Amino acid sequence: MENPDRPADPITLVISEVVEPSQIQAYEAWSRGFNQAVQQFEGFLGVDVIRPRDHAYPEYVVIVKFDSYTHFRHWRTSPTFQQWVDKGRNLVLDRSQQQLGGVELWFTLPPAANKLPQTPYYKKVILGILAVYPLILLADVLLGPFLKPLPSLLGLFISVTFVSALLTYPVMPWLSRLLGFWLYPSSARSTRKG
Q1: Which of 14, 88, 143, 189 could form a cystine bridge with 98, CB 3.0-4.6 A?
Q2: What is the per-residue pLDDT across 68-109, written as a single tens digit (0 to 9) for each?
Q3: What is the rounded CA–CA span in Å between residue 50 and residue 77?
Q4: Positions in the chain short of pLDDT 50
């Protein structure tokens, strides 16, 4: 049963870890084991690892997604999670975590983003267009023949549901990461200073 104080939306945990430079190979091995372990839990949707762009400041970002807060909490409070955190403790110099749910997934900020100005509104609009327009075309091709006999408002509702489901996960998070260099151009400079 879902906690009434928590959204039933997918939950994403963004973990930023600055790795001890001499421990990068050990961290990579630890990361593979951690990622395999989390995949065994119910409700797991995916894990992404963003490797450092600046080798002088080896910051890894691990993005773990679950379908609900209940499944996320089960994983976070499990002995398996605690064992893997303990194994990796000596490999990192600094760790921060951010938990996101629902529409927040669309604009998942890089860890250094709290030091940066907000992404300009026009960039968010362009990103939305790049994500929504192809999905509307896809919905029209895939669902159009099935929706034509239905009342127009019902057909529109089904089409919007299809587009929204794909937009929230995986399209917008993927597109945000792909265009991160454009959405947050100063994140690499800020990371180097950090």
Answers
A1: 14
A2: 888 989 999 999 999 998 988 888 887 766 665 554 444 444
A3: 24
A4: 1-7, 103-117, 187-194
Choose the final residue of a domain: 108, 134, 160.
Answer: 108
Question: Which range of residues forms the domain containing residue 61?
Answer: 1-108
Domain boundary among 108, 129, 146: 108
**Residue 17, exposed/middle/buried by CB under 10 A (0-12, 13-18, 19+)?**
buried
Give yes or no: residues 98 and 130 share one domain: no
Q: How far apart are CA 70 and CA 92, in angstroms?
A: 28
Same domain, residue pair 31 and 89: yes
Taking residue 10's Cβ as centre, other Cβ atoms within 10 Å add up to 22
Residue count of the chain: 194
Please indicate, yes or no, whether residues 47 and 140 belong to a single structural domain of this protein.
no
